[in-house]
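input
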Amino acid sequence: MIKIYPYGQVSPEEILSRREELPDVSEAVAEIIAAVRREGDDALRRYAREFDKTELEELEVPPEQLDRALDALDPDLRAILEQAADNIRSFHSRQVRNSFVISERDGVILGQKVTPLDRVGLYIPGGTAAYPSTVLMNAIPAKIAGCGEIVMVSPPTCGGDVNPTILAAAKIAGVDRVFRTGGAQGVAALACGTGTIPRVDKIVGPGNTFVAEAKRQVFGQVVIDMIAGPSEILVIADGNSNPATVSADLLSQAEHDKNASAVLITDSTALAGAVQRELEVQLAALPRQEIARASIEHNGKIIVAENLLQGIEIANALAPEHLELCVDNPFDYLDKVRHAGSIFLGRSCPEALGDYLAGPNHTLPTSGTARFSSPLSVDDFVKKSQFTYYTPAALEGVAGKIARFAREEGLEGHARSALSRQETGWKTRKIVSARNESSGIRYKIIEVAQSGAYELWSAHPNGERHLVMRGTKDQVWAEYKKYIHREESR
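output
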């Protein structure tokens, strides 16, 4: 049974704490990644035999199989997936960032260039489970961003196929290529590339402990979305809330994982007791009762606060993945929430709405990382480059300031770089000049003002002039003496 605590008896650090008994799989994952890097497709086929109990002749799912999966999908489910996809597109299309140019100063153009990633990889859990919502939530923002190619990996069933509902969702979302591999080896294939699976620039998508560790280990070779922890929900509810719906919302996350955290904060002692009792009723009828009960009993909590603002304070301290505000006038509290992955406003807004149909993304920061990170979005599938242009006159006006700044930091080369482009910076001083008697070519050493560099030039009888070399005074002088053998004054 879930426990009830008065406000202040449990610290914020303890509220979402959980009993995690996760094995250390780092060595095993490192071996898998090394094998995929070394053996490519052969390693993937070997791991399919070992982990998925299937023989794979072809790693890639033919495009026509995606078409067949969509055509064979139950019409009602297809309509739901397509409606969800439309909602996700509508929401995420508002996230698109455009390049910009600033030309507010004479002779100066500054800007930012937004470029989609060339290729992204989606990891979609599979096997006996099917999560088409994850396909939609990950692929559609990448498609809106304009990524050049979207590839997906998903573990095969024992029959060697990817779950057909997953394939149907991939078709709806616009995934370009799908491959039959999963686990740490699937992540490694996306990060390293194999003979069949192309290397990607970014990997997104959830997975088990092995998948999370693989993403951690390949980070730096590719970029990843996040290392997701167990799911969590914090419900803030007042005394007018229905204990049955509050309990159902808590269980919607508790059934994910024994390590999930489901927490209620309320200003009503009566609601706290009613939810405690209602949870037992609903748990008894829940198909995933064993998982949900472990989550509720080990990690679940009910906190009775003096008022709802204390609940908001706790929410900001915890930065939960999901935050429900089951209160009157929820928009009155929205601006007071600073840290949460996704916020659900009002009593008619269960977290499951966000998981499947509403449109905002369900890939969210966990374990308090909503303090500094955000839900998956179109931003995750683009990169930004800055650009700068100055005319000679514009640079002339600031070169001295740049040099002063650089010298303050002890970087004389930076100072000379700026000064060398000033009008005075291109003036030169001749050091020595002489003609090679046999070729008739005149060689001249000049000092380039402000740069500290010297140049050797050749002037040919036909009027052509060429830069022979640029370097220090000694380097240029040594080269000069190869052509002019008599001693000249330095």
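quick obs: The chain has a mean pLDDT of 92.
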